[in-house]
Design goal:
The structure is a single chain. Strands 1, 2, 3, 4, 5 and 6 form a six-stranded mixed beta sheet that branches. Strands 13-15-14-16 form a four-stranded mixed beta sheet. A four-stranded antiparallel beta sheet has the order 19-20-18-21, covered by helices on one side. Helix 3 packs across helix 8 (about 145-160), helix 5 packs antiparallel against helix 6 (about 105-120) and helix 11 (about 205-220) packs across helix 13 (about 255-265). It has about 750 residues and is of the alpha+beta class. The termini are far apart.
Length: about 750
């Protein structure tokens, strides 16, 4: 029957569908529901609110067909039927939420609202292919009865569009049915509806394949029926002898299922062995269900050899949607493999009508949120004394309540945690988009970056090249990606601004012809209340402190520091050391010997401390006789020691310290640590207190909170040097001290 013949719809279909619907719903109807519905529908028709949609489908006929199919196939309550009939009027705007709740009750209004919310999702065509779309659908539905209505509604739409002239419309509906609604029907245990949706989807998307499989099945029907009868007859006899009450029948698998097997096995239909299944349905009390099913299993497997690898025990561990059955594959007559399904009458009812039959769920985990939610329903409903439909009315579908699903203008769908802001969404799309985000348009309206997203929002991000992340953004983002990127970018900006401010301050000092003393600068920074050097320069960059005033404060502090006092501490930059005349001290003679050269204690020989390793008194050393006749003294661990020993062993001479301390020798120390206020002052203070150590030069390089310094100190022996290194290591903030020559 064509859906485009509106006269036929109204004169033939409507009365027939209406009478059947009244008959099937009289047990759940209350008062004058039928008369009240008829009145509001008639009024809406007179007002022109039952106009065929752009595909020529009558909303009134479609609603009646959906309500009738729901009543025939499932066990709907009164509210579900009324919601189906009122939904087209809510879509057209003839009746609103308030009027529905006032006239029909809160429950009906909630169902209609759920159907309306779901219908808004289909403006985003691209998102239907996303895995997140099904989750968003479940979130929007709010009530599981809305999902059931949607599934049946889609089933009736699929039945009505066969040979529809708009082929693209048919393909889109078929794809959605197979991708979205068939899996939902499977989840809820609506296997018959699932199979119909899959078969029609294949029929509309690949009619040639569907027709070919259907034709081959028809051609082999007589032979297949005869085989099924020969298989069943001896099984029936054995089951009856065991005292079981049962029905046994054979059924051909769905065309879609057969097509899937052909694709997976890369075979033609003639090579698919399990085109049909035998089903044994046992009538037995609840306490005998499992024993009687396993008794039937033993009878069948005694008669026919089973393939144990294909045993599926969904009685011991039911599926998450409540499905319970034993599936076995046995080798029947003519050595053909046959699938046998064994279940009780109650199990068959659940398998055929799914959720609406018992509203019971048990099972194993296969899709986190949905299966956990189903298990919760099962526990609550099995413990309830009232009818399951009454209880399910108040059960919220909050399986994805910790997530929000939002669209891009192009229809792409994204999942974010509950509480995510518009800024979170921008960073989720791309870090650069987040850093430049100034706000956005949500469902066409301008919103700030701290707007909290809601499922179903369509979000367009607005950006500016002048925008940059701020630390207060952390107050309204919840995703780790956004938080990490904000912190990272702010730190990078601060470091960049800090470096710029450092250069600016140095130029200002230079313009005023002021030489900067690092120790005085550190004291000034501390006096100004800054914990780190970076904070100080960031304040200059942000103009929160004045550069000229800062320089004036530095000059005042430097003047105070230059005043002599008994407790004065000499800073690194202020330290001056009388240079040693290296020409005079570079080479010494035996008259001032601190070394004993040679095994026979050679006297009067000139020697020189090698510059490559700068040995000091107490180091382990060796002598190398140079071409000038001067003995060069190297440390045993000198970088050049291995080369000298290998190339010039004949020019080596034994040397040792004589026991009397030598002159003060320059040694370079490398110090690494945190760039804390006063750390340089503390280091120089320790050096100044050492009697046998003098500070000659100091240089500091600070970067990103760390500093690396090189100290040149004069020491008389390695004992003094080692003591100094130990003491410097105790300074707070110092991480490492090493001798570098």
């Amino acid at each position: 029957m064509s859906e485009h013949n509106l006269k036929n719809d109204k004169t033939v279909e409507l009365p027939h569908i209406y009478r059947n619907l009244l008959t099937l719903t009289k047990e759940v109807a209350a008062g004058n529901d039928a008369g009240r519905l008829r009145a509001v529908i008639s009024s809406a028709m007179e007002a022109g609110h039952y106009v065929n949609d752009k595909y020529g489908i009558s909303p009134l006929v479609h609603s009646l067909e959906t309500a009738l199919a729901l009543s025939e196939r499932l066990s709907p309550d009164r509210e579900m039927i009324i919601a189906i009939m009122l939904n087209p009027l809510a879509v057209s705007g003839y009746i609103d939420d308030t009027a529905i709740e006032s006239e029909w009750g809160e429950d009906v209004a909630r169902l209609v609202k759920g159907l309306l919310k779901v219908s808004t999702l289909y403006s985003h065509r691209a998102a239907v292919e996303s895995d997140n779309f099904r989750r968003l659908l479940m979130t929007f539905a709010d009530d599981i009865r809305v999902i059931i209505i949607m599934i049946v509604d889609r089933l009736m739409l699929m039945k009505r569009i066969n040979h529809h002239p708009n082929e693209q419309f048919v393909r889109d509906v078929a794809y959605e049915s197979n991708y979205l609604y068939a899996p939902l029907a499977h989840r809820l245990g609506l296997y018959a509806i699932k199979s119909e949706l899959e078969d029609m989807s294949l029929k509309y998307s690949n009619r040639e394949t569907f027709t070919g499989i259907a034709r081959k099945l028809n051609e082999t029907k007589v032979k297949r029926d005869a085989y099924i009868a020969s298989f069943i007859a001896p099984v029936r006899e054995k089951l009856e002898a065991a005292g079981l009450k049962f029905d046994i029948k054979g059924r051909t698998k769905s065309i879609y299922s057969i097509w899937n097997k052909m694709k997976k096995q890369h075979n033609d239909i003639e090579d698919i062995y399990d085109l049909f299944a035998i089903r044994i349905i046992i009538d037995t009390p609840a306490d005998r269900e499992k024993p009687d099913c396993w008794l039937a299993y033993s009878i069948v497997t005694d008669m026919y050899t089973p393939n144990t690898a294909r045993l599926k025990d969904w009685i011991s561990i039911p599926k998450s949607n409540g499905y319970e059955s034993l599936h076995i594959t046995v080798r029947g007559p003519e050595a053909k493999w046959v699938e046998v399904q064994i279940r009780t009458r109650r199990m068959d009812l659940v398998a055929e009508k799914g959720l609406a039959a018992h509203w019971r769920y048990k099972g194993i985990k296969s899709e986190g949120g949905l299966d956990s939610w189903m298990n919760n329903i099962r526990d609550i409903l099995e413990a309830a004394e009232t009818g399951p439909l009454q209880l399910i009315k108040n059960f919220k579908m909050d399986i994805y309540s910790k997530e929000v699903f939002v669209f891009t203008p192009k229809g792409d769908l994204y999942k974010l945690p509950l509480g995510a802001s518009l800024l979170d969404f921008a960073f989720h799309i791309h870090s650069k988009l987040g850093c430049a985000c100034t706000g956005g348009k949500v469902n066409g309206k301008n919103q700030k970056i701290n707007y909290k997203l809601q499922s179903g929002d369509t979000v367009e991000i607005l950006t500016s090249s002048q925008q940059s992340p701020k630390l207060d953004w952390l107050n309204f983002v919840v995703t780790s990606k956004a938080r990490n990127k904000i912190r990272q970018t702010v730190n990078e900006l601060n470091n960049r601004d800090s470096e710029f401010a450092r250069e600016l301050l140095q130029r200002r000092f230079k313009n005023r012809k002021i030489d900067v003393d690092e120790s005085v600068m550190m004291k000034l920074i501390k006096k100004l209340g800054f914990k780190t050097v970076t904070e100080f320069y960031s304040a200059i960059a942000s103009e929160s402190i004045d550069v000229a005033a800062t320089i004036d404060r530095y000059v005042e502090l430097a003047a105070k520091e230059s005043q002599p006092s008994s407790a004065e501490r000499v800073s690194a930059d202020e330290f001056t050391l009388q240079s040693i005349d290296t020409d005079k001290t570079e080479s010494v003679t035996a008259s001032r010997d601190v070394l004993i050269i040679g095994s026979n204690e050679i006297k009067g020989m000139n020697y020189r401390m090698a510059r490559c390793c700068n040995p000091i008194f107490g180091d382990k050393v060796f002598g190398f006789i140079s071409s000038e006749g001067v003995v060069k003294i190297h440390r045993d661990d000198c970088p050049n020691a291995h080369h000298i020993h290998e190339r010039y062993p004949y020019r080596l001479i034994t040397v040792r310290w004589s026991g009397k301390t030598g002159d003060m020798t320059a040694v370079t120390l490398r110090v690494v640590g945190h760039d804390d206020i006063g750390i340089v002052t503390n280091i120089t203070s320790i050096i100044n207190k050492e009697k046998s150590v003098s500070l000659r030069t100091i240089s500091i390089d600070s970067n990103d909170g760390l500093f690396q310094g090189h100290l040149v100190v004069g020491v008389t022996d390695n004992t003094a040097l080692n003591n100094l290194i130990k003491k410097i290591k105790t300074v707070k903030g110092v991480k490492d001290v090493q001798r570098s020559n």
